[in-house]
Amino acid sequence: MKFGKTASIFFIFITLVYFLTGIGAKSQKIVRLAGSTAFLPFAEKLAEHYMKTNKDITVDVQGGGSAVGIMVATEGIVDIGMADMLSLPKETDSLEKVVVARDGIAIIVNLGNPLTNLTLNDLTQVFSGKVKEWKEIGVNLSGQIRVISREEGSGTRKSFDQLILKSARLTTDAMFQDSNGTIREAVKSDPNSIGYISIGFLDSTVKAISVNGIVASNENVILDTYKISRPVYFLFKQNPTPETKNFIQFILGKEAQKIIAADGLIPVVKI
Question: What is the pTM of this model?
Fold first, then answer.
């Protein structure tokens, strides 16, 4: 798997943090997670909920992106790596894997943009840079299209590339942001921009457009009519600690899956 510079730096940071915090903490029961920034706020909320009824356990959650999650899980630096990818790389072959949620990817534009729908082919043309101006796709906006994307190492980016760009490459004019939230803010402030974020991060500050006439919603992902989605994985070594195993069981339980659903993701367990 190709890791970006940002992911490599964050990998070093996570390694140092966990090495230093691990000194003198041998007697504590800790479950450590790192990885997907898309799932990060959900994991933090679930960890807080878990610790309220498991006061002898500390669940530490860090981000860094899916590439970091894979690296630190493979190296055994964390107990659980988080990765939101359509398909996992060969580096994960030695790890146990469980899908804990599903997540749709919405295409977003500025609220001032009259665009409401694009075809999958349109999206490929726009994000590859073959279409550079809004008028080329029938949108009454002056100026060039400004593509906002996630950085390399992001699971959202990798899934988007596979689902939308396929054999094409992202335009060299793309601007990069390091999280769903920062892409949302960039699109919110730029009338000519277009980007993509997890459906769970949609709010009233940006507009999600339909793709092939299908609205970007969890309901349509579940119905398999909206095709731009990916699973969220927990990755961990064989024979995890009892604390890690119990936390994973909690995430896959009805209580946690209800929280996941209420916060905008798609549960993998019937609730």
Answer: 0.86
